[in-house]
Amino acid sequence: MSHTATPTVVDKKQQLVSAAFQLFYQRGVHQVGINEVLSAAGVAKKTLYHHFPAKQELLLAVLEQRATAWLDWMAGRLSQQPQGAPALQCFFLALHDWFAGEVPQLHSFHGCFFTKVALEVQDPAVQARCQQFRLDLAALLMPHLQCCWPQQAAAQLDFMLLLKDGAETQAALQAVPAAALRALSLWQLSARAAA
Amino acid sequence: MSHTATPTVVDKKQQLVSAAFQLFYQRGVHQVGINEVLSAAGVAKKTLYHHFPAKQELLLAVLEQRATAWLDWMAGRLSQQPQGAPALQCFFLALHDWFAGEVPQLHSFHGCFFTKVALEVQDPAVQARCQQFRLDLAALLMPHLQCCWPQQAAAQLDFMLLLKDGAETQAALQAVPAAALRALSLWQLSARAAA
DNA sequence: GTCAGGGTAGACAAGTCGGTCTACCTCTGT
DNA sequence: ACAGAGGTAGACCGACTTGTCTACCCTGAC
pLDDT above 70 covers what percent of chain B? Predict the structure, then answer.
């Protein structure tokens, strides 16, 4: 075996991460046991512990994959618009589609995975990974903000993240995709005021 | 024993609810075992199960007490201002004090208890109680909103709750009390636009 | 044919959970 | 004095948890 990973190995690992994400996202990390992940993924316990030394490592891999999937999706949406204000407006419209369950590759909406995990899991490595997602999101938005308000980009970023967090929470707790449109309304007021 | 509850009984029950709240709030309901609540409250296990048939009932009592404490505190803050716009602004200033840990009777800030519990616990009765808190909060704010915008009070309420949720999440995840002031800025823009 | 590697199923260990129960103690009313 | 309510400490039960380990199976190289 000269390769570092045979196709089968990669597949099993992926199946584990995908199954774990769906269960963790829907019901919470601590509510879902290893055995449930195993039966959902169709994988033996020994194989899980061959790839991941512990449940927490599996969770970190899940966070990693989710961050990539979410940020790639959002980056794709933003790139369909001109840089600056249109892309920033598109951000909230994309959130709306996500809340409404119209983005299959993100699975049906149950709030922000990173917010939920950060509130539930105390582990420092997990906390750090959730923080990193916020930084990556900030890096994604920052070029557009600097394009519109070179002097106040950081302050406007805080507004955007607050509106995103608020819309996600409201959408998750009340099952109302329109929360994204409310956030967009507020954002447009803020954008106009800062112009 | 003609009284329905002797003083001692009330005390033990209160100690249980208080200790459980602090632990549940800081570390999450599922992360805290019954035994930990018992030793923190200085109460025997049999006494707990004399007052509450199960852990979930204890959680419901904790939610009840927290709702009363939080809403009473906020109602007190709002009542110090004239009805309408000043009280609504005071809402966000009160949140800021809460985030900054300057409201001892609410304990040090770790996000909104009801949001955290609603995201963590699946039980329908618990979910319903968390929803009820949102309704009670809405009822607290509505008179002031109707005073300012009789026609658009409901829409403005959604804006306020979105800003509250966003500020709480941001403050909890980043330990930044200023999130409340950001929410206030956005609220003032919204208030001006709706005038 | 045979033999190792990576997979399977699942028993098992060690520990925690919520919840029950026994045995004892300490007040209070009469 | 004494019965009984309500408290304490903590042993105990069954179910569940993560993680280990045994025993087996299937496939591909030679």
Answer: 95
Nearest Cα of chain A lies from the Cα of B2 at a distance, in angstroms, of: 44
Provide the phi-psi class of B107: left if phi over 0, else alpha when psi is between -120 and 50, else beta. left
Residue A82, classified by CB atoms within 10 Å of its CB into exposed (0-12), middle (13-18) or buried (19+), is: exposed
The helix/strand/coil state of A98 is: helix
- Distance separating alpha carbons of residues B109 and B172, to the nearest angstrom: 8
Mean pLDDT of chain B: 93
Contact between chains at B162 and A179 (C-beta distance less than 8 A): yes
Our measurement of the distance from residue A177's CA atom to the centroid of its chain's CA atoms, rounded to an integer in Å, reads 17
A162 contacts B179? CB cut-off 8 A: yes
Please give the average per-residue pLDDT across B138-158, as a whole number.
96
Band (B110; pLDDT cuts 50, 70, 90): very high
Instruction: Please tell me the class of the A1-52 domain.
Output: mainly alpha
Average pLDDT over chain A, rounded to an integer: 93
Q: Which of B120, B134, B162 sits opposite A167 (nearest CB)?
A: B162
Q: How far is the CA of A72 from the C1' of D27 (A)?
A: 38
**Secondary structure letter of residue A109 according to DSSP:** -
What is the SS3 assignment for A81?
coil
Average pLDDT over residues A132-144: 98
In whole angstroms, what is the distance from residue B155 CA to residue A181 CA? 12
- Asked whether the beta carbons of residue B130 and residue A190 sit closer than 8 angstroms, the reply is no
Contact A77, A90 (CB under 8 A): yes
The domain limits of chain A are 1-52, 66-194
- Cα distance between residue A132 and residue A66, in whole Å: 12
Give how far A119 is from chain B: nearest CA, Å.
7
For residue A5, what pLDDT is reported?
A: 41
Structural tokens at position A86: 């249109």
Query: In the structure, how far is the CA atom of residue A8 from the C1' atom of nucleotide C6, in angstroms?
Result: 9
Three-state secondary structure call for residue B43: coil
Q: Using the structure block, give the residue that is written with the tokens 């505190």.
A: B73
